Predict the 3D structure of the following.
Amino acid sequence: MIPAGGKITFDEVSEKTGLAKYAVRRLVRHAITMRIFDESEHEVITHNKMSKFLTIPYINGWVEFEARDTWPANTRVSAQGYRIALECVEIN
């Protein structure tokens, strides 16, 4: 969505995605705090090294797999382990 070597505004992202501008602003600025994307000017998004790296097809596929399949499975395993641990503790 962000052109390589280019820039895009929050308004343009909002129009292209159908998301409200406040939601785009919050999501993108959260990504910026994680060092993905830069805000070169007020409400103008540009790529940085990390976001360019994430556009590589096999890297993007891996991230999508981790987010869609692996992460939800890990949270279920962790929650189950937590429940088992609580059952082993005697409550006085």
Observations:
- The two ends are 57 Å apart (CA to CA).
- The chain has a mean pLDDT of 85.
- The beta strands are 7-9, 38-41, 44-46.
